[in-house]
Amino acid sequence: MKRVALLLVLTGCLVPRAAAQEEHIQVGVFADYFRAAQTDNNFAGVGARVSFMSYKLLKFEAQMSYDFNQAFTEGFTNTGTGSVTVSRSGMRVLHGEIGPKLDLGHGRIRPFVTVKAGGINFAFSNAPATVGTFFSSVDNLRRSNVSGVLYPGGGLEGHLGPIGLRLDVGDEIYFSSGAHHNLSMAFGPYLRF
Question: How far apart are the C-alpha atoms of 154 and 111, rounded to whole Å?
Answer without folding.
Answer: 7
